[in-house]
Amino acid sequence: MGANKNKEDKKIIAKNKKAAFEYHIIETYEAGLELKGTEVKSIRNGKVNLKDSYANISKNNEVFIIGMHVSPYEFGNINNVDPLRERKLLLNKREIRNIKDYLTKDGYTLIPLDLHFSKSYVKMSIAVCKGKKLYDKREALKEKAAKRDIDRNFKVSFR
């Protein structure tokens, strides 16, 4: 029982399903989020969408997530905030410096992969990505279809 306590609980709340298909993932980071109280309650209910969201570094070296939609908490009050507001990501200086080095190169962007709970904290996995070309996407679809066929044949052979 003691061995399980060392393992980090990671319950995924929302996933950016298109990220792996649209981009080559270069390097991933885990960041905390600066949230308001009613946003946390809404996220616990799964009312969050990462589609079309991205991260950016401001002039004073702070990372913000842009375009993440957190629905207003239904039992909230006047403290509910704008669902599309920019939210600050909490990273250390070394990580921000590494990300900034990538983003100065042409074609790189910072994309959220998923939103999850790590212990009781809301965390976000973000990745430095480079956009895929159309032929890369076709290749990914071919590989996915081939893997599905292999799995199907493998399953049939054991019956």
From TrEMBL:
GO molecular function: RNA binding
Subcellular location field: Cytoplasm
Record carries keyword DNA-binding: no
Organism domain of life: Bacteria
Gene3D superfamilies reported for this sequence: 2.40.280.10
Keyword field: Cytoplasm, RNA-binding
InterPro entries: SmpB, SsrA-bd_prot, SsrA-bd_prot_CS
A cellular component term, taken from the record's GO annotations: cytosol
Keyword Cytoplasm included in the entry's annotation: yes
Gene Ontology biological process terms, A to Z: trans-translation; trans-translation-dependent protein tagging
Residues annotated as signal peptide: none
Purpose: Required for rescue of stalled ribosomes mediated by trans-translation. Binds to transfer-messenger RNA (tmRNA), required for stable association of tmRNA with ribosomes. tmRNA and SmpB together mimic tRNA shape, replacing the anticodon stem-loop with SmpB. tmRNA is encoded by the ssrA gene; the 2 termini fold to resemble tRNA(Ala) and it encodes a 'tag peptide', a short internal open reading frame. During trans-translation Ala-aminoacylated tmRNA acts like a tRNA, entering the A-site of stalled ribosomes, displacing the stalled mRNA.
Annotated family: Belongs to the SmpB family.
Name by which UniProt lists this protein: SsrA-binding protein
Native source organism of the sequence: Anaerofustis stercorihominis DSM 17244
